[in-house]
Amino acid sequence: MPVLKSDANVDLYTIDTGSTRTVSDWPGGINLVPANQVDGRVVTYFNVVGRSGSSSAPEFIEYRPFHLSVNGFEISGSNKLPQPKATFSNMDGSFTDLNIDFDDLVGFKLIRIRTYAKFLKSVDGVNQASYNGNAHFHPDVWYFNRKMEETNHFCVYELASVFDVEGIRFPKRRMYSNYCPFVYKGPDCRSQSNRSECPKTLAACRERFPDSDLRFGGFPTAN
Fold this sequence. Notes:
This protein is mainly β.
C-alpha cells in the first residue's frame, strides 16, 4: 500500500454533543476522517479538544475513514456568516439511526481539526517519526442546524456558526445572563490566557480577552 504524501491535507472530524444539547444516551464522540484523504486507512492524532478541557481525557483519538465531504467554510463578501454543508455516506444506515435517535443531530457540534499527513501520530497502527501534536490549525466548531436531505446513500446537513443566532434553535441551548457554558480554553472559548481557571462570568471573560472580541457564551441581555 502506498505511503501517504507527507504534505497532504488531512481534515479530522468529530461529531459530539455541545453546549446546545444535553443527551444522556449519547455513546460518545464519532471520529471520522475523509477516506479519500488517507487512502481508506485508520489514523490517530493528539486529542486537541479533549486534552484542553481535561488532562484526564485520552491523549490520542482514532479516526476511522469514512465517505464524507464538508464545504462552504469560506466567508462571502457580504459578511454573512457561512453555512457549510456536510455530506455523510448513509449506505449502512448509520446516519438514519442517528437522525431517529437524536432529532436529526440538530444542536450537535462538528469539530474540524486540520493538519498534514506527516504530523499524524499513526497510520493503520504504524507510528510516524514526524508526528507533531501541535502542528495543526485552530479547531473549527460548527453546529448541526438542520437536515437538508436523507437518502439510502447519503445524508446532507446544514451547519451553523456558534455565533449565528439564527442557527441555534431554542430551547436547544439554555440562556444564561452572566454564565458562560463553554469549556474554558475549549473550541468554543479559544482563550489563550495563562490563567488556569475561569469563573465563567462576563467580567472574567473580559479579563481574558482584553484586546480581542469576547467569546462569551452567555446572553447578557437575557435578564
